[in-house]
Amino acid sequence: DEVLEHLDETVTLLDDAESGLAAGYSALGSTCCIAVYDPVSHRVTLSSAGHLPPILVSPDGRAGPLPVRPHPGLGTEFALREPYGVHTFVAPPGSLLALYTDGLVE
């Protein structure tokens, strides 16, 4: 979540400098999802800023989105009003974690 907070501040500052908008309001915005996998514990820890939820495909083929609480994207006026959530999930051996862009589904 610290990385996402830093990225949000960077996007907002760059956009403010480029567009002349009032500080804290971005015309750009972006999404980001950071995931870390621990192969020993089979845990995935992730934090998302406006990104679509990752899909976890289990070894038996069942698939579904991870229940990640939505958060505003980077550079939006709402992004820093609340901390970015950090979520931890178990990904059994043989699982597949799919991260994808909104361009794939919209």
CATH class: Alpha Beta
Q: How would you sum up the global shape? A: globular
Determine the number of helices (DSSP H or I, runs of at least 4 residues): 1
Share in β-strands: 25-35%
Main sheet: strand order: 1-2-5
**First-to-last CA distance:** 26 Å
> Any low-confidence stretches, pLDDT <50, length ≥5?
none
The structural domain count equals 1
Number of E-state strands: 6
Examine the coordinates and then state which fold CATH places here, giving the name of the CATH topology. Answer: Phosphatase 2c, domain 1
- What is the CA-atom radius of gyration, in angstroms? 16 Å
Tell me which CATH architecture applies here. Answer: 4-Layer Sandwich
Proportion of residues in helical segments: 10-25%
Structural class: alpha+beta
Largest sheet: 3 strands, antiparallel
The averaged pLDDT comes out at 78
Secondary-structure element order, N to C: HEEEEEE
What does this entry look like structurally?
- With 106 residues, this protein is of the alpha+beta class.
- It has a single domain (2-104), classed as PPM-type phosphatase domain (Phosphatase 2c, domain 1), CATH 3.60.40.
- It has one helix spanning 2-19, and strands at residues 32-38, 43-49, 55-57, 63-65, 87-90, 96-98.
- β3 (55-57) and β4 (63-65) form a beta hairpin.
Summary, kept brief:
With 106 residues, the chain is of the alpha+beta class. It has one helix spanning 2-19, and strands spanning 32-38, 43-49, 55-57, 63-65, 87-90, 96-98.
SSE blueprint and pairings:
Layout: H1 2-19, E1 32-38, E2 43-49, E3 55-57, E4 63-65, E5 87-90, E6 96-98
Antiparallel strand pairs: 1-2, 2-5, 3-4, 3-6
